[in-house]
Amino acid sequence: MARRITPSQFRSKMRQAQSKIRQAESKYKQAVNKLNQEIRTYNSKVRTHNARVRANRDRLRREIQKLQRNSSKTPICDVQDFSLNSPALIHDS
Q: Which of 9, 20, 50, 70 is spaced 20 to 30 A from 39 at the CA atom?
C-alpha cells in the first residue's frame, strides 16, 4: 500500500522535482550556448580563411593577365641565344 504524505510534503517534493528540471534545462542551455559559440568561432575562422584564399586567387589571376598582356607586347627571345657579347648589349659610344 502507498505511503500517505501530507499536502505540505507533496508540495515540497514537487518543488524539488521542479528545481531539478530547471537545473537540467539550465545546464542543457549552457551546453547549447557553448557549442553555438564554438560553431560561430569556427565559422568566422573559415570565412577569414576563405576570404584570404579568394584574395590570393584574384591577385594571381590579375598577375597572370598582366603577364599575358605584357608578353604579347614584348618579343620573346630564347635564353640560350642570349649572351653578354650579344650585339643588343654592346653599344658603340
A: 20
Cell reading at 41 = 568561432
Write a three-state SS string for 11-77: HHHHHHHHHHHHHHHHHHHHHHHHHHHHHHHHHHHHHHHHHHHHHHHHHHHHHHHHHHHHHHHCCCC
CA distance 93 to 82: 22
Q: Please count the other Cβ atoms lying within 10 Å of the Cβ belonging to residue 46.
A: 10
- Whether pTM > 0.90 for this model: the answer is no
CA 20 remoteness from chain centre:
39
Q: 9-64: per-residue pLDDT in tens?
A: 999 999 999 999 999 999 999 999 999 999 999 999 999 999 999 999 999 999 99
Cβ atoms within 10 Å of 85's Cβ, excluding its own: 6
